[in-house]
């Protein structure tokens, strides 16, 4: 939540910071602001609302040109989305500017202290206290990095802070505790950002910051210390994301582009992980085969869409490895005292690698002695860094708030983990693994075929734009797919949408069915566990008899559903466990088109941010 950018170099800081903020707007769009150091002073502009409001403000009232600057795009926590609460926040003399992501939990008492000492604070935010504290510390030590270290030692909570001071015109200082912050190192210039997308157009050299570290950026180098002032060890890495991958590339929305990229994302996630004979080579999973043979329980923790990927993974893990698998919302996990030990493998799934609930869950798991494997899309992010092992999904940057390609690649990664466990533990024969791997290798092409047939789905979505409610039903792996379809519709179309296990219908939800209520049903393959198929066909008849308008997603050749489907969406035949990879795609397209038809912002749905970095 909240996007932060900092720059020092020889180019126009305002241009670089603004371009970076534009790429980070998905992290929050309640307000945006910038500050630049120029002509011995500090100039700032900030505006409530979308980034475009700030652009307009800068056109009407341009800032002076400078080569050091910071910027912020906000997802409001403390204080509403107003100009006054927008970042940057300045001290009373207007010499320090600070931007912040996270929550400073002890801000109220810090504020009271400052007010007692005569400071005047003009916003309702937790952030403003930092600008005032930095000004006080700087007046004593005349060193912004040192002032930041001193202030950070007084702060409680999770925070990324980036600050500039007019008396140190070629310095940007950042600090990090639990919220994301990455350093970019260029030729005679350096960058700070919540996400590499903000600076990949300028440099591919990045440095990961650890917890409780302060970084000082100058044109000629970067210095990192702990909050205690001791030099810190840092890891440099090369960003392999392509700058063009973070552009819309001719699509109206990032979401449309990301849906279209799914065949490639799936293929990329398989790449290099299967050897010539079809066995898995997951060298990155730095947990030895002997340790994996000891695992007696798998626990998956994740949030939102990643949680749905985990729910699907459970079916594959238990079926292929015979190890019990629990799936838990990361936000609930550590508060219920879960039973974990050295033989528990915890799998933390996260696109961003920064979701606070998931991070806290994995920390809790490690404290209890469990091994943690992260499935993550973002190199250098906190969740993989704090895990024992990581399997990266290769979806490329996902910018739209609604997760699409990350979900499909999370599924692929989960299947790989399940098969790998089956391989090392010997619960699957080699030829069985090769057969699944062959099916997985074909899935990218099947997703492509689904995408080619989506026009009727779009048309159907447009025709339902006036509805208030859509229900989703599924069985077995189709149940989490139904949950995912409902989540997409809620977040994009702002409609009441619920996913149910079809078997639960008669235990309550069937009372919701009324005349012409759209109900999407994900039908399992008739070739798999056909008892499931037969049961869901009965469910379709039951709801249709009560007036529902049935929208049936069924595989090609499944004729049994035809008489009961008011709308039929065909998907290619796949093995039962892999069906979510194709069945989810029409639901993504459906939600995106409904949102468009209702005039909603597809890439930036209201109240949401891409990466949820506060609990
Ligand atoms: O970055 P993460 O995968 O950890 O994010 C988890 C959820 O916040 C995320 O999947 C969210 O539910 C998406 N907006 C859903 O489309």
Structural write-up:
The chain is of the alpha/beta class and 615 residues long. The chain folds into 3 domains: 3-245, Glutamine Phosphoribosylpyrophosphate, subunit 1, domain 1 (4-Layer Sandwich); 249-450, Glucose-6-phosphate isomerase like protein, domain 1 (Rossmann fold), CATH 3.40.50; 455-597, 3-Layer(aba) Sandwich (Rossmann fold). Helix content is 35%, strand content 23%. It is built from 18 helices and 24 strands. The strands form 4 sheets. An 8-stranded antiparallel β-sheet has the order 3-2-4-1-10-9-11-14, covered by helices on one side. The protein has a 6-stranded antiparallel β-sheet with strand order 5-6-7-8-12-13. Helix 11 links the parallel strand 17 and strand 18 (371-376). The termini are close together. The site of 5-amino-5-deoxy-1-O-phosphono-D-mannitol (M6R) has 16 residues, from helix 9 and helix 16.
Globally, the shape reads globular
Total domain units: 3
- In percent terms, what proportion of residues is strand? 15-25%
Bound molecules: 5-amino-5-deoxy-1-O-phosphono-D-mannitol
Task: List strands and helices in order, with pairings.
Elements: E1 3-8, H1 13-24, E2 31-38, E3 41-48, H2 51-60, E4 68-74, E5 89-90, E6 96-104, H3 107-116, H4 128-141, H5 144-152, E7 157-165, E8 172-177, E9 182-185, E10 190-193, E11 205-208, E12 213-218, E13 221-226, E14 235-238, H6 254-260, H7 262-270, H8 289-294, E15 297-302, H9 304-321, E16 325-329, H10 330-333, E17 344-350, H11 356-367, E18 371-376, H12 382-385, E19 389-392, H13 405-425, H14 430-452, H15 455-463, E20 469-474, H16 478-493, E21 496-501, E22 518-522, H17 530-545, E23 549-555, E24 567-571, H18 580-597
Parallel strand pairs: 15-16, 15-17, 17-18, 18-19, 20-21, 20-22, 22-23, 23-24
Antiparallel strand pairs: 1-4, 1-10, 2-3, 2-4, 5-6, 6-7, 7-8, 8-12, 9-10, 9-11, 11-14, 12-13
Helix pairs in contact: 4-5, 7-13, 7-14, 9-13, 9-16, 13-14, 14-18, 15-18, 16-18
The structure holds 5-amino-5-deoxy-1-O-phosphono-D-mannitol.
């Amino acid at each position: 939540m909240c996007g932060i950018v900092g720059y020092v170099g020889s180019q126009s800081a305002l241009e670089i910071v603004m371009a970076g903020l534009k790429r980070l707007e998905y992290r929050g769009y309640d307000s945006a602001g910038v500050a630049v150091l120029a002509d011995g002073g500090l100039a700032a502009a900030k505006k409530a609302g979308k980034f475009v409001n700030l652009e307009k403000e800068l056109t009407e009232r341009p800032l002076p040109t400078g080569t050091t600057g910071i910027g912020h795009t906000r997802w409001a926590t403390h204080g509403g989305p107003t100009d006054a609460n927008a970042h940057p926040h300045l001290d009373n003399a207007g010499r320090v500017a600070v931007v912040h992501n996270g929550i400073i939990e002890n801000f109220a008492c810090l504020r009271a202290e400052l007010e007692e000492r005569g400071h005047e604070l003009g916003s309702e935010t937790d952030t403003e206290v930092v600008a005032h504290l930095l000004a006080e510390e700087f007046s004593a030590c005349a060193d912004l990095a040192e002032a930041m270290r001193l202030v950070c030692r007084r702060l409680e909570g999770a925070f990324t802070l980036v600050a500039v001071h007019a008396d140190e015109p070629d310095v940007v200082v950042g600090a990090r505790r639990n919220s994301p912050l990455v350093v970019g190192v260029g030729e005679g210039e350096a960058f700070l950002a919540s996400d590499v997308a903000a600076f990949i157009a300028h440099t591919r050299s990045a440095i990961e910051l650890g917890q409780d570290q302060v970084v000082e950026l100058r044109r000629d180098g970067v210095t990192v210390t702990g909050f205690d002032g001791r030099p810190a060890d840092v890891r440099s890495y090369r960003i392999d994301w392509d700058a063009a991958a973070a552009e819309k590339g001719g699509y109206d929305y990032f979401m449309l582009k990301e849906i279209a990229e799914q065949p490639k994302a799936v293929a990329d996630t398989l790449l290099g992980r299967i050897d010539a004979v079809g066995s898995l080579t997951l060298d990155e999973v730095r947990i030895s085969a002997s340790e994996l043979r000891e695992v007696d329980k798998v626990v998956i923790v994740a949030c939102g869409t990643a949680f749905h990927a985990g729910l699907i993974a459970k079916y594959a893990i238990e079926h292929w490895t015979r190890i019990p698998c629990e799936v838990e919302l990361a936000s609930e996990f550590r508060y219920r005292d879960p039973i974990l030990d050295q033989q528990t493998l915890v799998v933390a799934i996260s696109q961003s690698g920064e979701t606070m609930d998931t991070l806290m869950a994995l920390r809790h798991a490690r404290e209890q002695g469990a091994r943690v494997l992260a499935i993550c899309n973002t190199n250098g992010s906190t969740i993989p860094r704090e895990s024992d092992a990581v399997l990266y999904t290769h979806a490329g940057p996902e910018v739209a708030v609604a997760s699409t390609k990350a979900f499909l690649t999370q599924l692929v990664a989960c299947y790989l983990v399940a098969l790998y466990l089956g391989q090392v533990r010997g619960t699957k024969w080699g030829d069985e693994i090769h057969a699944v791997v062959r099916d997985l290798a074909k899935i990218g092409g099947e997703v492509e075929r689904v995408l080619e047939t989506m026009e009727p789905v779009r048309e159907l979505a447009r025709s339902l734009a006036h509805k208030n409610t859509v229900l989703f039903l599924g069985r077995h792996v189709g149940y989490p797919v139904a949950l995912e379809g409902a989540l997409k519709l809620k977040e994009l179309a702002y409609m009441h949408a619920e996913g149910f296990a079809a078997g639960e219908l008669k235990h309550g939800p069937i009372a919701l069915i009324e005349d012409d209520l759209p109900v999407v049903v994900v039908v399992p393959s008739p070739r798999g566990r056909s008892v499931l198929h037969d049961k869901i066909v009965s469910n379709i008849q039951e709801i249709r008899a009560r007036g529902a308008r049935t929208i049936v997603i069924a595989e090609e050749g499944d004729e049994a559903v035809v008489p009961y489907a008011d709308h039929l969406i065909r998907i290619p035949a796949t093995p039962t466990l892999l069906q979510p990879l194709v069945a989810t795609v029409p639901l993504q397209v459906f939600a995106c088109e409904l949102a468009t038809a209702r005039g909603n912002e597809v890439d930036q749905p209201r109240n949401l941010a891409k990466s949820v970095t506060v609990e």
